[in-house]
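For practice. Supply one:
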Amino acid sequence: MSSWRDSLTSIPGTVAQFFNESASSYLHTTSLGSTVGRAESESGGSEESAPQGEYRALPIPASLVREQWRLIFTSDANIQDLNAAIAHCKDLVLLSEELSEERRWLVRHLVDLRYSRQQLEEAEEAQQSLPSDIVVMDAIRAVVGHHFVPHHPHHGKRSRLQVATKRNYCDHCTAIIWSVVQASYVCSDCGYLVHQKCIDSVKRVCAHVLVSERQHPISEICPEIGLAAQGYKCAECGTPLNLKNSWIEPRLCDYSGLVFCPRCHWGDSTYVPARIIHNWDFSPRRVSRSALQEIRLFLNKPLIRLEEDNPKLFVFVEKLCAVKKLRQNLVHMRHYLAACRIASEMKLVDQQLGSRRHLAQSNEFYSLNDLTQVETGALTEFLQGLFKTFDEHIRSCPMCLAQAYICEICSNNDVIFPFDDGCIKCDQCNSIYHRVCLTRKNMICPKCKRIQERRLQLDRIKSTDEEEDEEEDAKEATDDDVTPPQ
């Protein structure tokens, strides 16, 4: 710990400038209402650049700058230094206010500290298992929420010729990454690709961190705030977007509504979740690089309650009505398959659904991938295949047939299920009837009627008993009053 502090005290001016820039950029980004990026500091100070090996954390709030010496560590910090920083960070988390910017920064930083400690521990274990003449280099680097790992485009089934024809560009400097002569890193969480030399200059917060904090895609259609509200600067890197020095084209992101420079907005096109939910519009729109990574992370997450957000879509889009009906049937089938021992041994549900179990758990939640497949018709075909497979098992399995129903109105011996066409389920008692038979009974369930009659009969018996008890009590009281004293 002492060696670590000595190394820090040897560069007081450089580290102070680093945190002053971080604090000022944090205040600038919070005034915009965005957590991505940090603007360049315009305050005075030393013009020396920070050392290349220095650890770069998320922009620190101004209220925590005085704690920087115990929270931030250099790249040569050991496990003891990280344990001390983790302990102090945990204490500050408990002392900070709930839902505050300080607590959010501390929680983010605590995750990075623990992740770096884990990597050091794994590197030490690997070093012990190898000969003494082989040195294990630190392969994973944590920068502003990113977890960078070495990028090896030549690995896999693709040939070198196929790799050479595909060009990869650095997400920071936008230059080509020549994989033959240049080392590159990629974020294992969001796919941020960067040169090795550009890692220490990365400013964009990892999209995985933003997704975990936001938890839902932006629901407003292009919530634009204007370039003036951004201080005529890029929302991510803080590049000036004015005519003072040179003209830099400002580019609007249709997802976040913020304006970016060409380095942070490459003109990528994709569909925007808010336009799908409100307008059922799948037209590709131009979004920034950070928005594109965020949408990709939301792609397969079932977080959208479409019927709650926009129920009128089910009236105008027939494909959604068909998908909703199929999912309702699959929900009924899942109850039979969950109680079936044979289906559990075969792992029928896991084999057919895989990672899309939400399709048979309820008919409320949709992912972005589900909605795009609804538009193309692929989801309808997939659900119809599931329905056919599950239906064949239920009708041929003796354990599932034992849970079937018989319509008591028509007394037909044919078994029926709640997912059959022409059948209806009572919401009160869960009994199944033919829709035609229940319509003849004016949609009055016979079982519910019997239950109600029994309940009324029990209430009458109970009230009669109470009246008899009251009469007996009154008679005993009268007899006591009439009886003369002895």
